[in-house]
């Protein structure tokens, strides 16, 4: 039975596979078209990066503000949390209202959300979200 | 279907391929004409004429633009990372082109004994697919910014990725709230519920507002276009791009806009529903005429959303970066979490038909509680500056000002 379900599900993904192939071909064709059709003249000044007419000083790949890094970490915490919440939401909405099972579901997920809220308040107090 | 065809080619697959072809062309050609529409709308809002030289009313302008862009030089800076520089536009475009796969553009069509859905793929993960695919778009922007080896591009890519990552969380929470309300992740079942009852916009107005703001931020539209702010970063992450590579970024932006509007239509505006308040509505299934009517209604709603987005462009000024981050992390995430908690409580009590009342009460509570929360010093306060016409640095101002006087360079 489970094998059958799997087969049915995968059939629904065939058009998505086709769509991915079409999108890749579309992007590649566009990139190739301008490469073939456009003119091509090169020079040392023309090849330099545009920085409003100034000669570029050094490389652009420098160190940057550490706040972006902290932000990325905070994002990961919340994103993973939300991914866990999706299957819960579908199951919880199908349970009978005010039943014991629903109460258990709600209580567990409230605890889970509370743990991330603690992390969120900690990050807020530490000034992660302050950019001024 | 005839017997000689392989088993996996079904009527649904043929319809899916048809939908793919129609929608890809709609996005590609639509994007060209949306540029013209945007320029015309901007012109009307500013009391100008807009493009009117190429063809009647400027209608051939997009074609002229496209020809110009195709025959332009495809320029790669010498110091750029060539492989990533070429791949970045493709990385930006492909998610925009494949994300519309789960959106139902019309109801089900009866052909002989078979029923087909007017969608590319009705997969069981539903809206989660769309959320996952649209968030892949950040790779294109970050890679473009990094590979150009240009400081403007680098800052643009950095800003774009931080912004898209930040606004992903309230968007995820808003969609989660909607999944709780609908009890399903399949978009066709969501539309069916909205056809039989109210639009989810009425049940979840806060989630709709959060989702719309996040959609603007994810597409890098004004007032969230800090990643390509012309006055600060020249062109942002696409400073070094020309010709068709630049077009791919442009197509990606407009593609995201079209797909985002369609997603909003499906989630909150009931797809092809014409009655927002009670059950009397168009059916799910129908003949070819009904399908065309439903498709027309969906497209009208999508078009209205796009026009709203374009009107917002000339209504709201651009954010400053700290305001942008504060809005996402200190404004929208707490609100979204609150709405999620309220919704799960309402679902638990079985009061879902009264969800609109709970939303109204939530708005009222937020309005009441907001002034009591700890406030940050106003970042828009005027700093006294030496020689300023508006807040000069006087002795009295120094004495009475609660803020530390700061120099220009800190």
Task: Tell me about this structure.
The complex is a heterodimer of chains A (132) and B (410). Chain A has one domain (2-125): NADH:ubiquinone/plastoquinone oxidoreductase, chain 3 (Methane Monooxygenase Hydroxylase, Chain G, domain 1), CATH 1.20.58. Chain A has helices at residues 2-12, 14-37, 66-94, 100-125. The mean pLDDT of chain A is 82. Chain A contains four helices and no strands. Chain A starts with a helix and ends in a 7-residue tail after the last helix. With 410 residues, chain B is mostly helical. Chain B has one domain. Helices cover 60% and strands 2% of the residues of chain B. Chain B has 15 helices and three strands. In chain B, α3 (82-98) packs antiparallel against α5 (137-147), α3 (82-98) packs parallel to α11 (243-268) and α6 packs antiparallel against α9. At the A-B interface, α1, α2, α3 and α4 of A face α1, α3, α6, α11 and α13 of B.
Count the strands of chain A? 0
Number of helices of chain A: 4
Order of helices and strands of chain B: HHHEEHHHHHHHHEHHHH
Helix content of chain A: 55-70%
Radius of gyration of chain A: 26 Å
Number of helices of chain B: 15
Second rung of CATH, namely the architecture of chain A:
Up-down Bundle
- Name the beta content range of chain B: under 5%
Biggest beta sheet attributes of chain B:
3 strands, mixed
What's the layout of helices and strands?
The complex is a heterodimer of chains A (132) and B (410).
Chain A: H1 2-12, H2 14-37, H3 66-94, H4 100-125
Helix pairs in contact in A: 3-4
Chain B: H1 11-45, H2 61-70, H3 82-98, E1 108-111, E2 114-117, H4 127-134, H5 137-147, H6 151-182, H7 187-196, H8 200-203, H9 205-218, H10 230-233, H11 243-268, E3 285-286, H12 288-313, H13 321-349, H14 355-369, H15 395-400
Parallel strand pairs in B: 1-3
Antiparallel strand pairs in B: 1-2
Summarize the structure.
The complex is a heterodimer of chains A (132) and B (410). Chain A is mostly helical and 132 residues long.
């Amino acid at each position: 039975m489970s094998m059958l379900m799997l087969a049915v599900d995968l059939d629904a993904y065939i058009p998505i596979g086709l769509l991915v192939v079409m999108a890749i071909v579309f992007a590649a064709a566009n990139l190739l078209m301008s490469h073939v059709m456009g003119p091509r003249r090169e020079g040392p000044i023309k090849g330099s990066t545009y920085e409003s007419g100034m000669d570029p000083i050094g490389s652009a790949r420098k160190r940057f503000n550490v706040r972006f890094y902290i932000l990325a970490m905070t994002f990961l915490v919340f994103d993973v949390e939300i991914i866990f919440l999706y299957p819960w939401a579908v199951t919880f909405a199908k349970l009978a209202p005010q039943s014991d099972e629903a109460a258990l579901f709600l209580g567990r997920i409230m605890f889970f959300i509370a743990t991330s809220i603690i992390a969120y308040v900690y990050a807020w107090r530490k000034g992660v979200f302050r950019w001024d | 279907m005839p017997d000689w065809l392989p088993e996996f080619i079904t009527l649904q697959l043929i319809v899916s391929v048809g939908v793919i072809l129609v929608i890809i062309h709609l996005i590609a050609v639509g994007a060209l004409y949306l540029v013209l529409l945007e320029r015309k709308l901007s012109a009307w809002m500013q009391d100008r004429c807009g493009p009117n030289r190429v063809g009647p009313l400027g209608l051939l302008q997009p074609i002229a633009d496209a020809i110009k862009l195709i025959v332009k030089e495809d320029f790669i800076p010498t110091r750029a990372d060539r492989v990533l520089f070429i791949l970045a536009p493709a990385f930006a475009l492909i998610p925009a082109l494949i994300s519309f796969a789960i959106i139902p553009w019309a109801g089900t069509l009866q052909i002989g004994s078979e029923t087909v859905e007017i969608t590319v793929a009705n997969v069981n993960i539903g809206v989660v697919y769309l959320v996952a695919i649209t968030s892949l778009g950040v790779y294109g922007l970050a890679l473009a910014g990094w590979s150009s080896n240009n400081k403007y591009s680098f800052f643009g890519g950095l800003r774009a990725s931080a912004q898209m990552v930040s606004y992903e969380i309230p968007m995820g929470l808003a969609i989660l709230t909607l999944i709780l309300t609908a009890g399903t992740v399949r978009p066709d079942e969501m539309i069916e519920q909205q056809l039989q009852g109210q639009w989810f916009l009425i049940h979840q107005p806060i989630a709709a507002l959060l989702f719309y703001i996040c959609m603007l931020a994810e597409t890098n539209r004004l007032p969230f276009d800090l990643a390509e702010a012309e006055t600060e970063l020249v062109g942002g992450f696409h400073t070094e791009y020309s010709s068709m590579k630049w077009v791919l970024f442009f197509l990606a932006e407009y593609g995201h806009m079209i797909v985002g509007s369609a997603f909003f239509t499906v989630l909150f505006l009931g797809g092809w529903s014409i009655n927002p308040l009670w059950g009397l509505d168009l059916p799910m299934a129908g003949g070819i005429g009904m399908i065309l009517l439903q498709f027309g209604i969906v497209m009208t709603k999508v078009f209205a959303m796009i026009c709203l987005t374009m009107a917002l462009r000339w209504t709201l000024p651009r954010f400053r970066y700290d305001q942008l981050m504060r809005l996402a992390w200190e404004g929208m995430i707490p609100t979204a979490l609150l709405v999620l908690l309220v919704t799960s409580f309402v679902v638990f009590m079985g009061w879902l038909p009264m969800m609109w009342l709970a939303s109204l009460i939530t708005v009222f509570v937020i309005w009441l509680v907001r002034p009591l929360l700890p406030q940050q010093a106003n970042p828009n306060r005027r700093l006294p500056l030496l020689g300023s016409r508006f807040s000069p640095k006087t002795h009295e101002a120094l004495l009475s000002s609660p803020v530390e006087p700061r120099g220009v360079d800190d």
